[in-house]
Write a structure and sequence with these properties.
The complex is a heterodimer of chains A (403) and B (324). In chain A, strands 1-2-6-5 form a four-stranded antiparallel beta sheet, with no helix packed on it. A four-stranded antiparallel beta sheet of chain A has the order 4-3-7-8, with no helix packed on it. Chain A contains 13 helices and eight strands. Chain B is built from seven helices and 21 strands. The relative contact order of chain B is 0.14. The chains are: A alpha+beta (403), B mainly beta (324). Chains A and B meet through strand 3, strand 4 and strand 7 of A and strand 4 and helix 7 of B.
């Protein structure tokens, strides 16, 4: 201690002469030099590669046009892959694209000429320069809808049916929740928490499902959880920021309004993911657009409207404000349907599902304090009953829809 | 009225009109019309051209023995090399003399044959000939010279018997692997009195398991898939065509040959001078072979291929171009 104290000033002075930015930059420069030398010398001491190149290609998107498959490929593996021939159902076929090797994480779209028949199954094999084959199944051949105006209109209509209208209908419970006793309102809030908890599970599972189907190059299932964390943190930040502002304004209904907005944003993100699922299923012909499905979604999503209006029961928001909340919660379904049908990408979809789940987790965390009874307990009988009822409603109405 | 019936009642269209229609609609690529590959195989890099190999017969070197008999000697070397078996697809092949199939060894009935075999590869090999010979010359492990290890050599010696179309291949286990990688060839013994002059060619049918899953990704005759599609094999109208056909396909029990617009005489194993049948399709099991003879009465392009459509569209098809 003493010795250090005696010489303590000397090194501090010496360091003081070097600018701070230089000290921050120095390690980076050294790392860059080390990497440069390592690569320049060809990785000294490592020798050659053990074994043949690893060739991995994921098919990210399949588009069926008359007489033609279009496959968007993504190189998942560590080595470049060269697609040299293509087989469909055990026959070599003509194809275009992928003239050059596809590098790591690189993407390329190939057009495969095949006079396909609607409703039949096709198995595509990509033959690489080493003779390896990469298989891709098209279980049911259906023409991919063209991205024209009428298609976008149809997707918008679908989004409005399953997103905007049900949420708006659910918000019609507002006059009722205003008149019910405080205990009932608490039960309704608990019901909302139950609904949302179910949506979290639903969105997470669907996200993991989507992530497992496509390219793993960008993290696969990890993207769901990253999306969850991003949405949770962003909404928490926004919530804290709104809280600061409202506190200064000393608005009586502020916390209720803030909560309603957060719930609307959370449900909106969830509906974005739902829209993606619907749009992409429709695009690959896996979605039967029956009235039953639409009715099922409507009932399922109506409860989301209730979740938005429950926190604002104590004050009187304008009709305009309510309309905005409804649109924030429901309209993303339209956007999601467009994305899902026109530019589906499993990595993006997994991330969006994760964001939806994370946003709702944040909303649930925000809602929980409002459930406290006089003794300060959150999980009192009324709340537990409400939550279970909420989950039961989502489970039963969820049986009607499977995308 | 059904649309089909309306079509049938309409004026028949000629082949020429069809051709014009095809040319008018955005000129479909060759591979769209008949199946095929994108790009071309570099025959020079492979070291052999299937079109040359087709009519390439190795008669060896001859010397007359004191007894007056002809001694015919050949050389085979086992090699490892990458072969482009379809455009862009590099196959790590094992070959005799750097080609698939190996040299077509040809002799006359009753001659004495000496086949010097050197193993220039990193794996043990043999040469097992179909024919009549002593057990010590059978080219299987444990008999005679047995397995020929890398860097070793041996000489197989036996009489050319019986006349016909035969095969030779490596007989080291795992058999399917050694054969599927390319260690096989045709072995033709002519009758003592010879055969009628003809445009002679040899085709050995085989498969290529490029991803080692014990199924063939590509089917071919003479090493390269679709090798005789473009350009086709040119033959003369009215001239006798004699095809020595053998099957060395692994992983599929049978293969077949079908000729368009014509019929051929089929001589199973080529051991009789009398054909067994006049047909346009013949089936061969693994290791089976025979001789086909026919003449084209008219000019034009005539297809030939396996009559297993899967094999056809995976590489085993070609064209004869008949010219005056």
């Amino acid at each position: 201690m003493e010795a250090r104290g005696a010489t303590g000033d000397v090194p501090r002075e010496r360091h003081g002469r070097a600018p701070r930015w230089l000290l921050g930059l120095l390690p980076l420069v050294l790392i860059a030099v080390a990497i440069g030398a390592f690569v320049g010398l060809g990785g000294p001491g490592l020798g050659g590669r053990a074994g043949p190149p690893i060739e991995e290609l994921a098919v990210e998107r399949t588009v069926l046009k008359p007489g033609r498959f279009e496959l968007t490929l993504r190189n998942d593996g560590p080595d470049a892959v060269r697609v040299v021939q293509v087989q469909v159902n055990d026959a070599f076929v003509g194809f275009s694209g992928a003239e050059k090797p596809i590098g790591r994480l690189g993407s390329e779209t190939i057009g495969v000429r095949q006079p396909w028949v609607e409703g039949e199954a096709y198995s595509v094999a990509l033959l690489t320069s080493t003779g390896a084959t990469i298989a891709h199944e098209i279980p049911v051949a259906v023409e991919t809808p063209a991205n024209n105006l009428s298609f976008f209109a149809l997707m918008a209509l679908l989004g409005i049916y399953v997103g905007v209208i049900p949420v708006a209908l659910g918000m019609l419970w507002l006059p009722w929740v205003r008149r019910i006793p405080a205990t009932w309102l608490q039960a309704v809030m608990a019901l909302t928490v139950g609904l949302l908890a179910f949506l979290v599970i639903d969105a997470t599972l669907e996200g993991l499902d989507v992530a497992a189907q496509g390219s793993q190059a960008f993290g696969g299932a990890a993207l769901v959880f990253v999306g969850m964390a991003v949405a949770y943190l962003l909404l928490s930040g926004v919530s804290a920021w709104l809280g600061d502002r409202r506190e200064r304004a000393r608005d009586a209904g502020a916390s209720g309004a803030r909560l309603a907005l957060l719930i609307a944003v959370g449900i909106g993100l969830h509906n974005l993911g739902e829209g993606v699922a619907i749009g992409s299923s429709y695009a690959v012909g896996a979605l039967a657009l029956g009235a039953f499905l639409i009715v099922g979604f409507a009932i399922h999503n109506t409860t989301e409207g209730l979740a938005i209006v429950a926190p604002v029961a104590s004050y009187r928001p304008s009709i305009r404000r309510l309309a905005v909340l409804g649109l924030i919660a429901g309209a993303p379904a339209v956007l999601g349907a467009w994305i899902g049908a026109a530019a589906f990408n499993t990595s993006v979809a997994a991330f969006l599902f994760g964001m939806g789940a994370g946003a709702i987790v944040q909303v649930v965390v925000q809602l929980l304090p409002s459930l406290r009874d006089r003794a300060g307990r959150t999980l009192h009988p009324v709340a537990v009953g409400g939550m279970l009822a909420g989950m039961a409603i989502m489970f039963v109405t969820g049986l009607a829809v499977s995308v | 009225m059904l649309a089909g019936a309306a079509l049938l009642e309409g004026r028949p269209t000629s082949a020429a009109e069809h051709h014009q229609a095809a040319a008018a609609t955005a000129a479909p690529e060759h591979s769209d019309v008949h199946g095929g590959f994108r790009g071309r195989v570099d025959n020079a890099a492979n070291g052999f051209d299937p079109h040359v190999l087709l009519r390439d017969f190795d008669w060896g070197k001859t010397r007359r023995l004191a007894s007056g008999r002809v001694l015919r000697s050949f050389e085979l070397v086992a090699l490892e090399q990458e072969i482009e078996v379809a455009p862009g697809v590099r196959f790590p092949a094992w070959t005799y003399n750097g080609r698939i199939p190996g040299p077509t060894i040809r002799a006359r009935e009753g001659e004495r044959l000496q086949i010097a075999f050197a193993n220039g590869s990193n794996h043990p090999h043999t040469v097992h000939f179909h024919g009549i010979h002593p057990a010590s010359m059978d080219g299987v492990p444990g008999q005679g010279a047995g397995i020929i290890e890398p860097g070793q050599r041996t000489v197989y010696e036996f009489d050319a018997l019986p006349f016909g179309m035969h095969l030779y291949h490596c007989h080291v286990r795992p058999l399917a692997e050694h054969i599927a990688k390319g260690m096989f060839g045709a072995f033709i013994i002519d009758p003592a009195d010879g055969r009628e002059d003809a445009d002679e060619m040899v085709m050995v049918m085989h498969g290529l398991d490029t991803n080692f899953d014990r199924e063939n990704e590509i089917y071919a005759v003479n090493g390269v898939g679709f090798a005789y599609m473009d350009p086709p094999i040119r033959v003369r109208r009215g001239e006798l065509v004699r095809l020595y056909l053998g099957n060395m396909t692994e992983f599929d029990p049978i293969n077949s040959y079908h000729l368009h617009g014509n019929f051929f005489h089929y001589y199973p194993t080529g051991t009789s001078l009398r054909p067994s049948e006049l047909t346009d399709t013949v089936m061969q099991c693994q290791g089976q072979r025979g001789i086909l003879e026919w003449r084209f009465p008219s000019t034009g392009r005539f297809m030939f291929h396996a009559h297993q459509s899967e094999f056809t569209e995976l590489g085993w098809q070609g064209f004869f171009e008949v010219v005056d």
